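Predict structure. Chain length: 347.
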Amino acid sequence: MRTGNLPVVGAVLVLAYAASAATQQDFEESYQAYRDAVAAQQVGPALEHAAEARRLGEELFADNPSRIAVLVFNHGVALAKARRGEEAFPVLTEARTLVAEAFGEDAEQVMQIDIALLDSVPRSRAARYYRRTLKDALTRHAEDSEFIADLKLHGAVRMWDKDTVRTLGQAAETYRATGNRRSYGIAQMWMGRKHFGAKDYRRAVAPFTRVIDTFAADDPYVLTARAHLVEAFEKLGQSDRATEHCVAIGRTRPWTGTADYQPLFKMPPTYPQSALRNSEEGFVLLAMTVDEMGFVRNPEVVDSKGGAIFHEPALEAVKEFRYAPKFVDGEPVEVTGVLNRIIFEMR
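Prediction complete.
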């Protein structure tokens, strides 16, 4: 899935091996390197070491299918996390067969693989695979179980269709009932993103607000939700409500200087009609002040290309930009000399 951490599968499927082959040390080193890469969220190294640990393990533990199952699963998950879904799906399919044979069809490990498979199944087959997997899972798990909620959450995000919001809502309700605040917040985030992507800004407000109410103020999910709300409220013509989130982001996020200072909301400029007719392109570099509420003040042109025809639309656009204000000693302050380049390009 597009949220969450890489799983250290060995923490669930314990590798209690006792091989004596000369390659055992190589395997131990490779497997530990895999675990270290997972812990550090290093996707590339995790895949490299998972593949090597699987290769060595298949030589060492040929007579122990449960150990092989673990290593094949690790490899498949690493491929999926590296966004190599076409390679991941057959590996995870093999892993599911091995794990079901080694631990039983009802094992927790099989549930993990079902979700990993849903994340990597080709999009053309995602809906059919999800329906089949959900139907099968409901014969083994209660409809209000967290596993079913996990399956619905992954399925809704994977398919991203007209049923996504309804399915995410079902998952969120289960997480709320079971007290799983993190998964509840993640489901709300995806609901907000679905509405936001459809430009239904009014309906996006509630789920993004629930994200803010669920996580700590400095959690990346909260900062992302607030950034979306800034744009949503600006689109709805509610700048005062956008300001609340501009200020909250500024209070939470460390100041890194004007070089990295980017707006939370940008109004695209109006392309001059005469420039369009003549296929003219250019840019305007503007200097401005960002005040204590994140509004742009006193913009002026400091450089441009393509002629003065682009100056006025650039100045009008930048006046609608919103920034997270800079905080000093707990108080918002204005920032002068902020630069932003507006590009006029034919597409």
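Summary: The beta strands are 282-290, 296-305, 326-328, 331-333, 335-344.
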